[in-house]
Amino acid sequence: MNIKDIFKMSLTGLSTHRVRSFLTILGIVIGITAITLVTSLGNSAEELILGELKTLGPNNIFVIPGRQDASFASGSALLTDSLKEKDVDALSKKSNVPGAVKVVPFVFGPVTVSFDAENYSTTLLGGGGGIDEIYGLETKDGEFFSADEVYQKAEVVVLGSKVAEELFGNSDVVGQKVKMKDKTFRVIGVLEEKGQSPFVDFDKVAIVPYTTAQQYILGYKYIQRIAITAKDEASVAGTVKDIEQTLRDSHNITDPDKDDFFIQTQKDLAATLSTITSVLTLLLASIAAISLVVGGVGIMNIMLVSVTERTKEIGLRKALGAKNSDILSQFLVEAVLLTGIGGVLGIFFGSLFSYLGTVIAYRFYDINFPFSSPISGALLGIGVSTVIGFIFGIYPARQASKKSPMEALRYE
Amino acid sequence: MALIEIKNLSKIYRDNEIETVGLNNISLKIDEGEFVAIMGPSGSGKSTLLQILGCLDRPTSGQYLIDGKFLDNYTDNELAKIRNKKMGFVFQAFNLLPRLSVLENVKLPLIYGGYNEPERNKIAFDMIKLVGLEDRINYKTSKLSGGQKQRVAVARALANNPRVVFADEPTGNLDSKSGEIILDFFQELNDKGHTVVVVTHESYVAQSAKRIIQVRDGRIESDVLVKDRRIIKEDGLIK
């Protein structure tokens, strides 16, 4: 008996119970659909996030206060107030960080912007001069504040397009006065619509000089981020080293393990985020895999029923000279074919749903969610479903092959 | 040398500690070219004897020889090969696979016998022609009458050109005319040199054999040659 004979027999066996075969593989179809969908959407999400991250600019370096490995167990404070004005000054010195083209401190916090009776709660971003260039922001009306205005703690604000629209409707915004924390600010600019961004939604932001934010709104003296633009991508690594050295000197730190700041580059962020999305994808896929086990048990159950029902057939085949291994292969291939077909259907539906998901995200939520071809998910799905067929098919197939021909023939 | 020989063979069934004696110390020889009818009342052990002779079951004790070879230590697979190469089976309940066509049913033993597809088709077609069902070759066997089904079973039993054909009550589910056709096939086969062993409780079936073995309570009660053998073709019942 050759492989072709085995497949033909198994297919005949399955086609005699079409409805039952279909219902049996539903569990597998659902499981593989879920896995394909999750891995495909996970890949899409990763692509989307990494794509967004690129808008940060590959030359930008972010200094963040605190200790990266600060754990509650070690009892160390989170040190969120470790970056001060003097650090900005130190980093701005060419002799300290020769690769830095721009050093921009910033702070952020929640704020409510008011105009007449209208209130809008959103994120306040306090930046140094040049924050617009760091994030690639453009104004559609008016302009950004200057370094002088930062120095003078000028009471000026640049509003996100959405904030402006909510507060002022379609009327002119530049030159109007808004209130934040009982302080009056003059609107000097409105941002272009930018859409989604990885960390801040710039359509819904209010940007003021960081000095102003510290003084009048947030009420503290420390700095939450320092963004530094390096000359070019190649000099990022060297610049990071210079920044570390400068800050250690400034903070009197000799042991790098005791750094009270950490540094992120676009590359670091990309690596971190892609780890997070991969772990999430894996987690979701594992949950989906549980349904495969359930499906597998269903297959085993039906195969056992089928073996019992077909006891006479097994006896007859044995009487005609089928070896135990012939019977074993026939039933095992039936189980594997069942799960394999389930796997193929699952991949089809998973890809379809994933594609529909990206279309819906684009149409209704305006998110440019890239469709990620689920090839790795598909291969995984086929592999997993075949293995499931094997695992849950082997026991019923063995039961079938062990039947004595005489007892099987007698079975009623 | 006998085709099949059994010596002091017993078969005891155990079910929940209760022992039932199927065969009790039987010795028997069947030579090449014989046509043997095994008779006896129900529960006498005649079917058990056929199953042992047909290598469908293993004896509890005693010896079994085919072509002079002891089968004591044969594995399941070796027995399967012997059944496939040397034996053919016809059952009372036909035991065809109902969803398969006539051709596919007859091809079954050939699939397990290692023939390639063209050989299978040719042999199966010849066998189906032999039993006169060539116009039904692609019918599902569930669509056939009882007599036609048993003819398919005969074709299947002959496909591997077996040395011996075992038949367990082959006419039990058939009307008398269909039964006679089957018996005629057996006589023709036997004339061509095949050994035939038929289990039956009907004397007219036994009378068409050459030798009758009476079994009772798991023992051989009598073993005689048939005197007035019924030759079916001469009775004018066929064709």
From TrEMBL, chain B:
InterPro entries, per the entry: AAA+_ATPase, ABC_transporter-like_ATP-bd, ABC_transporter-like_CS, MacB-like_ATP-bd, P-loop_NTPase
Transport keyword on record: yes
Keywords: ATP-binding, Nucleotide-binding, Transport
GO MF annotation terms: ATP binding; ATP hydrolysis activity; transmembrane transporter activity
Gene Ontology cellular component list: membrane protein complex
Pfam families for this protein: ABC_tran
Residue stretches making up the ABC transporter domain: 4-238
Coiled-coil segments on the chain, per record: none
Keyword Nucleotide-binding listed: yes
UniProt record similarity statement: Belongs to the ABC transporter superfamily.
Full protein name: Macrolide ABC transporter ATP-binding protein
Organism of origin: Candidatus Yanofskybacteria bacterium RIFCSPHIGHO2_01_FULL_39_8b
